[in-house]
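dumping this here so i dont lose it
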């Protein structure tokens, strides 16, 4: 039996509706159970590095498409610790995951679902929500790739935080179990309820505060208050200054460089023209009601910015936007979108524009998204056309202080991340098949936990290999955070 929906088709100049088949529940359950033949649950613990494995070569290959003077900054950030290396090594891990057994159950992947790519930010209704917040690598692929990326990040970060093996196992198990149990809950829910589900931080605190220590409740409320201060006003105060009555973006090279300071290398007027042209085109990708809002702003100043770890070296611009009524300036970020690190292993994106790929993936996976999120391609001066996506630079954005977390805090955080990732996957894949595949036992959780520890060992070896490559001169690194 097959459940049917309808899709438009062209007939004699008119659109008619033809059935599009979706699997019925029993078919999805059967598919999920059959997937265990392809990848038994226990097999997810197995990882053996390929003899031809060369993570440093993969990182150097990525550097070829990045801003040359920023590549050493990226490598320097990755050298700080095994965890910072892990943050920048989505491509080597994708190559490793592609060599493992696959369930074949595909979802929209984040592609880089480590624990710091989750966080709190403002919904359009001005509520504080917790969700995934980085989609540079998003692409459809096997659901377990994201889960492995997340669980292994818990193991690597737990080592950086000095957690014992027993406590790291507790954290990883809680993370994987939260994903599995949440997916089984989503499988039993109507699809509309799945799409309405979101992690509202204030609602969660109200529900759970009676079960939480008073100190934890106070700390959570303080973190929520801090998150609300991290908005455009705070970003303007931190990243801009007013000189002679004109607002300008500060200079903090090589991390933030106003375009005027790059005049020896770039035609400043041409860059301004390019970015204004990019902004104009980008507004056309917004819904009409949001386009009207965006078009009330004008680009007045720009600067190049270094962001993250894995993203360092991709072209990223801060756009200082002045409104037509002279009040409330806005900072947007225009970030170059390159091919996903997963492309060579999970397949090509259906989107030719990589900025559209990022935006589409983000809107699929997030419960709510930035009202200024959009995309466009444009041609930088003296270069080929490139793809970009634009969003607010900051809107109540807050990331948990992972480095200060003990085992209990990391366990709670892991549960939040596991639930959130399951909800994103349930929106975009066959949640019923995945739930049937995962089953009711903890076999999957145990396998993921063992994989996480094994991959943490590999990450430490790879971090040491990067340090050796820098020492030998094969890799250039600039040590500045």
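and the seq i came up w/
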């Amino acid at each position: 039996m097959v459940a049917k929906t309808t899709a438009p088709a062209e007939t004699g100049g008119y659109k008619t509706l033809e059935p599009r088949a979706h699997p019925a529940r029993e078919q999805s359950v059967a598919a999920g159970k059959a997937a265990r033949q392809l990848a038994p649950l226990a097999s997810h613990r197995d990882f053996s590095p390929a003899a031809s494995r060369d993570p440093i070569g993969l990182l150097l290959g990525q550097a070829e498409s990045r801003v040359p003077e920023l590549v050493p900054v990226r490598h320097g950030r990755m050298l700080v610790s095994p965890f910072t290396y892990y943050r920048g090594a989505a491509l080597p891990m994708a190559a490793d995951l592609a060599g493992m057994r696959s369930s074949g159950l595909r979802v929209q992947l984040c592609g880089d679902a480590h624990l710091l790519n989750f966080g709190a930010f403002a919904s359009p209704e001005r509520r504080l929500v917790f969700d995934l917040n980085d989609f540079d690598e998003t692409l459809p692929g096997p659901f377990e790739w994201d889960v492995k990326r997340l669980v292994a990040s818990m193991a690597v970060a737990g080592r950086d935080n000095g957690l014992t093996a027993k406590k790291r196992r507790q954290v990883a198990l809680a993370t994987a179990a939260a994903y599995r149990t949440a997916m089984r809950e989503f499988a039993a829910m109507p699809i509309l309820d799945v799409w309405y589900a979101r992690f509202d931080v204030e609602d969660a605190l109200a529900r759970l505060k009676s079960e939480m220590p008073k100190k934890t409740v106070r700390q959570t409320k303080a973190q929520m208050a801090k998150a609300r201060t991290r908005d455009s006003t705070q970003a303007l105060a931190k990243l801009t200054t007013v000189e002679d009555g004109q607002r300008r973006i500060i200079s903090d090279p090589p991390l933030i460089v106003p375009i005027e300071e790059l005049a020896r290398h770039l035609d400043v007027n041409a860059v301004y023209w390019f970015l204004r042209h990019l902004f104009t085109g980008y507004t056309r990708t917004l819904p009409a009601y949001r386009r009207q809002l965006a078009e009330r702003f004008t680009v007045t100043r720009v600067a190049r910015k270094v962001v993250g770890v894995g993203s360092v070296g991709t072209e990223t611009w801060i756009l200082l936007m002045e409104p037509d009524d002279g009040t409330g300036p806005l900072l947007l970020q225009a970030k170059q979108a390159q091919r996903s690190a997963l492309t060579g292993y999970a397949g090509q994106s259906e989107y030719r524009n990589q900025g559209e790929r990022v935006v589409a993936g983000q809107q699929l996976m997030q419960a709510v998204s930035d009202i200024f999120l959009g995309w466009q391609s444009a041609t930088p001066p003296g270069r080929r056309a490139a793809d970009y996506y634009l969003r607010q630079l900051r809107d109540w954005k807050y990331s948990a202080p992972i480095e200060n977390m003990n085992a209990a805090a990391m366990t709670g955080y892991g549960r939040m991340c596991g639930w959130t990732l399951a909800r994103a996957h349930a929106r975009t894949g066959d949640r019923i098949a995945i739930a049937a595949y995962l089953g009711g036992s903890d076999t999957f959780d145990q396998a993921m936990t063992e994989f996480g520890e094994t991959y943490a060992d590999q990450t430490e070896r790879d971090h040491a290999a990067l340090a050796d490559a820098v020492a030998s001169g094969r890799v250039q690194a600039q040590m500045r955070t």
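Residues 443-472 form the longest helix (30 residues).
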